[in-house]
Amino acid sequence: MSKKEYVVARLVVKGKRFEILVDPYKAYRFREGEKVSLDEVVVGDYVYKDAKKGLKASPSELLEVFGTEDIHKIATEIIKNGELQLTTEQRRELLEMKRRQIIYTIAKSAIDPKTKTPIPPARIEKAMEEARVSVDLYKSIEEQIPEIVKAISKVIPIRIAKALIEIIVPPEYATKASGQLMKLGEVKKSMWLANGALLLELELPAGMQSELINKVNELTKGTATVKVLSIV
Q: Pairing state of beta strands 42-50 and 16-22?
């Protein structure tokens, strides 16, 4: 890996600075909870006090602060709780990635409380722009969504909700489709009807209603009955 392809991940603990060299994009994905091998994230096997000067942290310092000399455990803590020393372009790219993730996550769960219909991602994106919402690169998506929804609620009617959907699958598709259908939401009820049809009640983020209906139609060739029982 060339010098241009890695950055410093830095954590300050008790006034002491600890640094490792990492791939910026893989480190960000690792920090966000994606399954990325730490060996692909970290460059080299050293923890530094100052990576630019090549000053390594001593084993005694690592033991004192982290309680271990294990590079994997220390690197995990630095990446998860520290900051990535990103270039302007890297920060811009990662912020845009996070903004997209936030928009998609809100769209999955949000509805217009007046019509009880999902709100398209494009409308959420526009509302975020109008409300001048700022995305924090280092805060989790879950932490930021409540404040972002509160901000854009001043621009558009919006509510985070869950939908309870009833699906009745005809006998000819019931057995084959049941496994895939049960993965679409939290199963609240599942029973076989006298005629061999399958009745399911699934709870899922309200913004995913259209996605669920499309998948049900795909699996049953449009023969299933889908009914929204409640949105709360």
A: antiparallel
pLDDT, one tens digit per residue, over 33-92 is 999 999 999 999 999 999 999 999 999 999 999 999 999 999 999 999 999 999 999 999
Beta bridge partners of 198: 169, 192
Domain that includes residue 50, residue range: 3-84
Within 13 Å and on the Cβ side, how many CA atoms surround 74? Answer: 27
The CATH number for 105's domain is 1.10.10.900
Tokens of residue 101, six digits: 């993730």
pTM: 0.80
Alpha-carbon separation of residue 170 from 96, 159, 175, 231 (angstroms): 44, 34, 9, 25
Residues 153 and 225 in one domain: no
Arithmetic mean of pLDDT, 122-137: 97
Q: Sign of the CA dihedral 69, 39, 30, 17?
A: positive
